[in-house]
Description:
By secondary structure, this protein is an alpha/beta fold. Helix content is about 35%, strand content about 25%. The chain has helices spanning about 5-25, 25-40, 90-95, 120-130, 145-155, 160-170, 240-245, 255-270, 275-280, 290-300, 320-325, 325-330, and strands spanning about 50-60, 75-80, 80-85, 105-110, 140-145, 180-185, 195-200, 200-205, 215-225, 225-230, 250-255, 305-310, 335, 340-345, 355. The strands form two sheets. It has an eight-stranded mixed beta sheet with strand order 6-5-4-3-2-1-14-15. The chain is globular and about 80 Å long. The termini are far apart.
Amino acid sequence: MTLRKPWRLALLVLLLAAAALYNWRAEISLQVARKIAAKHLSSTGLEGLADGLHVGMCGAGSPFPDELRAGPCTLVVAGQRLLVFDAGNGASRNIGRLGFTHGRVEAVFLTHFHSDHIDGLGELMLQRWVQGGHRAPLPVHGPAGVQEVVAGLMQTYRQDRGYRVAHHGDAVVPASGFGGQARPFAVPSDAAVSVYKEGDLEVSAFAVDHSPAHPAVGYRINYKGRVVVLSGDTKRSSAVQREAQGADLLVHDALSTKLVNLMEEASSQNGRPGLAKVLGDIHDYHATPEEAAQTARDAKVGYLLLNHIVPTLPPLPGLEKVFLGDAPRIYSGPLRVGRDGDFVSLPAGSREITHSTRLRFP
């Protein structure tokens, strides 16, 4: 009987503490939220990153809805410079979830003008303007046609621009910094062309084959001897292999023929012939994981990260293995099916390649 009283007392104390925590849950949550906000708003996301190239997936998906992958978007950090390549839906929000400040984005580079690569650009231009207080528009680089894309978005957001300047004042959101400024470039069919150079950082563009989407380009980013190549959307391409020679990281689009065929068959059997036709059409302008692996192997790249994942890959056991097919047997280096939040770091002055996951919030 003497042992039971202390246990009863301890249980009573625990119950009272639980009741107090429950009653004060709103205040506790508010204090936690205050600390999170302070930490988040005091950071640009660049603190603590080693000098070098860093590549984050702000959208590893395609037009197919995917809970793990927003529309195409790749964020590249070079030293303290922040660049964005393509801006699909979710791009702006995922840049924030990766922990970076939109106001620090220096330029956007578009690979081509399929809707899934540009349908987040308007929001990104807006967030960069409002959060950065810029007095000049966001440079948007791309092949011929980028002028029309940027002009259309500027027109779409014209009324919103007026509201925000009237509400917050020109000192906070300068009217001159609204939107984007198109920076078109021409690309030869058989060579890369430098489209951006600032100090040790150079971005080159090269033509790829995504016909009938034309022009379409990939990008090679070089910073202090570290090299990243982005294929853009393309079938297997000798240009990608040429530009990826010896690259540290190749980010390559990938479509699983087996899984798309499965979806095409299901569409036909369930009275959706139009969707079946679309699914049948997309095979011929994307690379398969095996073809991306062949390019990575032959170019002797250090790491292969697949993006623009087609079709949707729900988190089912073994499904990524089906998607990859024979790719792991073709390319023996590190190989990953991209997800939003993937973050690959290439420190300057080394051959180190590290992968982490960087999303701040679920």
